[in-house]
Structures are given as C-alpha cells and as structure tokens.
Description:
The structure holds two protein chains of two kinds. In chain A, the strands form four sheets. In chain A, strands 1, 2, 3, 4, 5, 10 and 11 form a seven-stranded antiparallel β-sheet that branches. Chain A has a two-stranded antiparallel sheet with strand order 6-7. Chain A has helices spanning 34-41, 69-89, 114-123, 125-129, 144-155, 158-165, 182-187, 201-214, 247-267, 275-290, 307-325, 328-339, 344-355, 358-369; strands spanning 14-24, 49-52, 58-62, 92-95, 134-140, 170-171, 174-175, 192-193, 224-225, 227-230, 235-242, 295-298, 303-306. Chain A is an alpha+beta fold. Chain B is mainly α. Chain B has 18 helices and no strands. Chain B has helices spanning 15-37, 41-52, 62-67, 69-85, 89-94, 96-119, 124-135, 139-148, 154-184, 189-221, 225-245, 250-263, 276-293, 299-324, 332-341, 347-359, 361-364, 366-392. In chain B, helix 6 (96-119) packs antiparallel against helix 14 (299-324).
Amino acid sequence: MAEMDFTPSPELTIGVELELQLVQSHDYDLARDAAELLARLEKVPLAGAVKPEITESMIELNTSVHRRHAALAAELEATRDAVVKEAGMLNLRVCGGGAHPFHSWSARRIFPTERFKHILERYGYLAKQFTVFGQHIHVGCPSGDDAVYLVHMMTRYVPHFIALSAASPFYQGEDTSFQSSRLTAVNAFPLAGHMPFVKDWAEFLEYYERMRAFGVVESMKDFYWDIRPKPEYGTIEIRVCDTPLTVGRAAALAAYAQALARWLLDERPQPAKRAVYLVNAFNRFEAARFGLRGQIIDPFAEKKRPLADDVLDAIAGVMPQAAALGGADALAALAADVRSAYSDADWLRERFAANKSLAHTVRESAARWAGDKPRASG
Amino acid sequence: MELGFLPSLPPAFGQPALFGALLLAGLLGGEVVRRTLGLPRITGYVLAGVLLGPQVSGFLAPGALLEARVLIDLSLGLIVFELGHRLDFQWLRRNRWLFAAAIAESVLCFACVFAALLAFGFQPLLAATAAAIGTATSPAVVLLVAHELRAAGQVTERMLLFTAVNCVVAYLALTLLLPFLHLEHATSWRAAVLHPLYILAGSALLGFVASLTLLWLAGWVRKREDRQFILLVALVVLAVGAARSLNLSVVVTLITLGMLARNFDYEHVLLPLRFGYGGQLFFVILFVLTGASLEFGALPAVAGAVLAFIVARFVGKGLALVALGRLSGVRPASAGLLTLALMPMSGLAVVMVLDTAAMYPAFGGELAAVVLSAVALLEILGPVATQIALRRAGEADPAAGSA
C-alpha cells in the first residue's frame, strides 16, 4: 500500500491550488474554453502547473512547494499574469470568487476526461452544480501521526478559513444571503464532511482500508472532507476556502495556515478533542452564512464568541510563528481586514449594489483579479 | 347600400398582414424542414420564402418585396448592430495577429473571387464589385446559428469577429469602387468622389452620434434590462430610418453604432445585449424575404461562374486562416472549421446587389445573376455548413436543438 505511505515533509512547506472561473468578455457568463487556454499555457514556462477541472469553465492553478509566504505570493502573481495574458489572447477573462454569480448550471459541460465523466455519471446533476471554485491549501507535515493531529486541531479553525475567504454571496442569479454559498454545494456530496476521530496514522489506515473493503471509496480522492491528509505529498489539505478575489489573499491564507500549523505542532497546546467535531457543523454554518459576523463555539473553552474576535486572537497568538516563517506582514494585513470588517463577499455585494448588474459585478471582479490594486493583504 | 361596412372583394391586406404571413410561413417552413430533414430552421425560413416568392407561387409579387424593404432594412440593421457589438477592439489590440488574420481573410477572399471572375471574362470593374459583395459573410446566418446552437467558444467568437470585419471591408471596397462606376457612367468627377465620401463619412457620423446618444441615455435609465431593451430597439430603428432618409448606408451606420456602443462604453453603462424572442422575429422576416428574392432561374446558364465564385471564396478565406490562424491562436483543426462557418451569404449580399444594380444598371445583367445564384445556393447550404462547423468544433450545446 505504497500509495498510503506518508511522505514526510519536515519544513512546514506550503502550496496552494486555486480553481478559477473563465468568463466571456461580452456577457461575463462562464466560458467553455478551458481546453484552448490550457493548450496555450502549455507553451508558457511556469513554476507550478495549470490543470483542467471538472467543467470546461474552470481551470486550476497549482503552485510549487514553498517555505515562505513571499515566494509563494510572487509565484502566484507571476502565474496569474501569465494566465490573464493568455486568456486575453482568447478574449476571455479570469476571475476569483467561490461561485459564478449567475451562470446556469445546466449549461455546464464536463471536461472530457475519464475521471470527470465518471463523476458526472455517478453524481448526476450534483457534478454540474459543483461548478464552484475553491482554494486548497497544503501544509507539509513531518509524519502521518502529526498529520492526524493537525487535521483534528485545524478543524477548530475551519470557520476562520471559511470566513476569511468567503467570496460567493451570489449563486444562480440570486443573493443567497450567505457569505460563502459554495460550501453548501460541497455539502451535497455523500463523502463530504470530516475525517473520523482517529487517534493516529495507523488507526486512520485501518479506517481507510475498511472503507475501501466496503467499496465506499477507491482512493483518498473520493473523500471530499474539509481537511484531509494527503500522504503522497506528505501534507494536510485544507479545502474549505472559496477562491478569494485576489492572489494576495490566497497567499495570505496559506501563510495563516502555515503559522497555525507551526504553532500547533511545536507547542501541542492541547490534545486533540472529539468535541471539536460536535460543534463543527454549527461553526461551519455560522461562518458560511454570516462570515466574520458569525458566532462560533470554542470547543476547548466551551463558550460562544464572535468569530471576528476569535480570528483576531488566533492571528495574534501565532504572530511569533508567522514572523519566524516570513508571514507576519500577510497576517497583519489579514487582521487589518478583519478589524475593518472587510470581506470579498461584502465587496461583491457592494459592487452589485453600486452597479445593479451581476454581469458588471463579474467584470469588476475579473479586473480585480487581473491585478488592480488589491484592497487586502497585497 | 346597407352592407357598405363589408370590405370590397378581394380585400386588400396591408403591411401588418404581410408581416404576420411572413412570420407564420417562416415558422412553418422552419419546423417542417427541421423535423423532416433535420436541417437548420434557417434553411426552412428561406425555403418558405422561395415558395411564397415570384419564382414559385407568386404570393409575394416583386413589388411586395420592394415595399417590404423597410422590414429588410430594420432586420439587417438590428443584426449588424448586434454583430458590431461583438467586435471587441481590446481583443484586436491584445491579439494583433488576430486583426491581421481578419484583414487577410477579407483581402484574400476578395482577391481570389476577383481573379476567378476575371478568368471568366468579366470586366474588371464589375468583377471587383462582385468580389467585394462576396467578401462578406452573412451576419444574420452566423448569428442565428450561433444563437440557436447556444454555441460558445473560440471558433464561434472568431466567426462573429471575422464576419464583422469582412462585412466592414466589403462595404468599404464596394463604396470605394463607386467613383469608378460613376465614371463608367460618365457622371461628373465631383459626384464620383463625393458620393462615396458622403456615404462613408455620413454613415459613420450617424452611427457615432447614435452611439453617443445610446450611451448617454443608457446611463440615464441605468442598468434595467427591460428599459435598456426598449432603448436599444428605439435607437436602432431610429438610426435605420435616419440612414434611409439621408441616403446613407443602413449597414455601415448600424455596424458603427454597435461597435462604438461596445467600445466607447468606458463608464460600463450598457448591459450585455440580449434581443431574445423579439430579435428572432426579425431574423425570420429577413430570411423569408431573402428567400422570396432568390433567383434560381439563371443558375444553369452561369453554373460554371457560380461554382468558381463559391470555390474562390472558400479558397480565399481558407488560405488566410490556414496561413495566419496559428499565429492568432486558432488551432489548425479549427482553421478549416472556421472557413466552413464563414461560408453563408444571404440578405446582406442581396441588398448590396440590388443597391448596386439600382444605381448602375450595367451591373444588373449576367454578373448579378452569378452573385445572386451563388447567394441562392449559399443561403440554403450556408446555414448547414455553419452548423456542421460549430458542432464539429464542439462548441454547440449538445442539448440545443438543430438551428
């Protein structure tokens, strides 16, 4: 079972995957030119990779592995510039955000690879409704046992990542009232949710083997968990974030995850606690629905508190680690946004209120992605 | 007479009845052709027109066609406006090879058709006029097929862009040939020079003024889809009417209006354009009427020249796309499909032939027969070609019915 051997990555490295929207320039609806764009990008030398995703309206950026925030941010900017330029040659625009505000899901077409065809066959309309755009953050772990501990401990911070990245207030032409409507689309899948409360890597392997023996899953890819271990990379993968509206924020979120991981693994502040999963669904909902204005339950202190306060305290708590890893500026910028109650979801609502058109909201969002001065954590 | 309220027999039906009858005939023709032969509906609209026209049933007399010219101009006006609106200057600036390819497509197509007609012994001036008309792809066909297939993608986008460019080039060429036609007919030098100038500058100016008005009023009514729709239709119809009254070119005016409205919208006041069902009415009318004005009678006599015309057109467009396609980011396989998609000719060409022949009767005879016969063939086959091209390119929505 070599595929489940945990490849150690000792340095708390970070890497990011970003799913991006391709939109047409004349009506700002989703385009279908992923294949054309990818063919052009093959000829452009990039540090990371750009890949197809499940529908022809999306592409996925993968960065290479980094130790420091600055290098990650620089690579993301370079890749973004290349993608925006090549898309421009095809008269396409690229934008961030967790969901396209008004596309019609039935018009989506699945990217023709075996895996994606299989997903369409298996999940039916869910596969097309799954045209949502997320950021995944990988954080390197020294061992499988550390990964298990980190998944359990990071789950307490899942609402932070949801609220800090939330950028999908509109879905199918409606204001959903959620800050992140994307998360709801993910919930519909039968293997969504979280990792079971296993105590170490050995117990996790046991669980995985049973699920495989039942025929519930074929590989780790079939678990759509909020955070899952990724043994072949030697990472844990945080999957709850919407793709933010700027690469700056995407890099800052990775720096936050890295600093948290450093703190948790170095200090082991508490043992993993099952109660985290008792309050998880509640916290996750609060964060997706209300963003930073939500209330969450701290499973360790066992009390309810405003999510924004919780985020600010956590950022302050890991500042020493962030400083050591070179991510202090990014975290300070995130904290400043929390204090000024800024979020990408609110920015989208504000633009919609100003111009009364979702198409024009997408236009502005694409301009922002392309590098107009980001408001946050540049 | 106490029954004076009854109409005299047979009753005289006016424009409204004509409008309704054309729509109904188009609808029926489109459905029948779609259901029995699986061909695009457009082909059915055209065939319905052929059946109603002077060539077959005579329900539409040639006089009726002239009366319906208003409808044709309105329909063409709306269509080229929409086409102009898809022409994105930013894209051409970003991808200069694309602009080069679009120009080359028009120029090579013109050159090939011109050479072919010369080889058939036509007088150079008239051959050039016919070549200019042949340069344009039918905007109505490409737009309607793209709409009905819900096509989206690089071949579709480029098809619309190239069509917009080749229509503009065709009109420019045709207008620049005017002085020579004038001189051929011994009009004064002044008329020869001023007439094309008046048409080009006047139409462009009218389109420019209309676009500024449109943008200004759109900013004022704000982004409400219903109001912007009324505003668009109002300004398009106004511009068509003004162009007709001023003896300007409806097509140049409206394509200018569309282009400038899109590219001068710095404040982003316009919503994306959606003519929807209302726009479809004009498409149907246009195709039925062009169907009625098609002439097949001359085809056997000029079959050789017609074939040469069509093949030269295809070769010209194909050469440019194969040569410059790669550089402008078209995949080699797509260049062929794009050439195929650009085949249709229709109402626009008929209008150009009629206008030219009205001013210069010498154009009327044999050459008009060649062009109109080519139009007749491409009007029927063109939509099928475009449909095949977009389907093959994988850009048609599989769930969308045949166009």
